[in-house]
Amino acid sequence: MPETAGNLPHLETAEELDAALAGIAKWEKEQNKLMIWDRITRLPFKLLDKLTPKIIHDKLGKLLDELGSYIQNGGNYLVAGRKVGLLMQAESRASGGSGEGPYPLAVMDKAAQQLTQSSRNVATAQGATTGFGGFFTLAADIPAILGLSLKVIQEIGLCYGYNPTDKAERIFTVKVMQFASSDIVGKRAILKELNLQAGGDGDITAGTNAAVSKIQGWREVITVYRDNWGWKKLLQAVPVAGMFFGAYTNRKALEDVAEAARMLYRKRRIIARLAEMQ
After folding, report:
1. Which of 132, 78, 124, 157 is nearest to 248 (CA)?
2. Are residues 178 and 190 in contact, defined by beta-carbon separation less than 8 angstroms?
3. What is the predicted pLDDT for the residue at 258?
4. Who contacts 215 (Cβ-Cβ below 8 Å, separation ≥6)?
5. Do residues 254 and 180 lie in contact, with contact meaning Cβ atoms separated by under 8 Å?
6. Deepest of 144, 158, 223, 230, by most Cβ within 10 A of its Cβ?
7. DSSP string covering 225-246, please?
């Protein structure tokens, strides 16, 4: 059933949606302020890049093909909608609802937070396990954290009513991951490209179509991912001690990705509901 103002009496008012949108706008402004630590740690990466073992570079290269496959046909990262659907129903009933959609933002937010928590715990355990063996297990950690990132973004997208089986949504998934790792200029460019900047109408069609031609082989995404996490992975490569670095860096990576997913999908849903009310 379409989400129109006439059949959504239990959902948010226009004023509540505007307030929620203002909250997301505040978060977007905060993204423009890089932490001093992040600025410093990006400086020595060119030197560290030369020290990175060839096996890691080769693994990152293979991820290019995996991402290309994911965009074209879904790859191995698509999730089952039933799991998310049951979670949404449970959260709806817990908040006094009927368990049926359309769901208010509060229910979507709670379900997305639950998925974030569970994925964060998996990432932490995974980073500790692969970090224990240093360089010998590091190569396995990189594609694993990428796959987990794509998975949690898709699940959060489902919470807000967006189907990852659509090609445009798969492209959006990759752009969310890129947003989480980008600098100020990159974040602004992605918001503009996806029509989610201030005043944008939330229609991602043109932006996702353009993204296919702009990111040949998705090297841009992998480069950003490498530049922001490569130095941390080097610390993880220290045997035994690497398990602590691995647990922390993977947990932080998932937190950043999941937060970006919650905010960007939430913004799209708010914009869509405001449009329907008009």
Report:
1. 124
2. yes
3. 94
4. 221
5. no
6. 158
7. HHHHHHHHHHHHTSTTTHHHHH
Specify whether the CB–CB gap between 158 and 111 falls below 8 A.
Answer: no
pLDDT in tens, 125-154: 766 666 555 555 566 666 777 788 888 999
Whether 236 shows a pLDDT value over 90: the answer reads: no
Verify cis geometry, omega within 30 degrees of 0, for the bond prior to 239: no
Q: Quote the DSSP letter at residue 37.
A: H
For residue 165, which phi and psi values (nearest 5 degrees)?
-75, -15
Can you tell me which residue has the tokens 């798969």?
170
Q: How far apart are CA 50 and CA 144, in angstroms?
A: 23
Task: Determine contact, residues 126/137, Cβ cutoff 8 Å.
Answer: no
- In angstroms, the CA 7 to CA 10 distance is 9
> Length of the chain in residues, anyone?
278
Angle, helices 242-277 vs 135-159, to 10°: value is: 20
Among 142, 121, 118, which Cα is nearest to 130's? Answer: 142
Per the structure block, which two tokens stand in for 142?
């990189």
How much is the average pLDDT of 218-240?
A: 59
Q: How far is CA 49 from the centre of its chain?
A: 25
Q: Kindly give the residue spans of alpha helices, DSSP state H, lying in the chain.
A: 14-31, 36-42, 45-51, 54-73, 81-94, 105-132, 135-159, 167-181, 184-193, 205-214, 219-236, 242-277
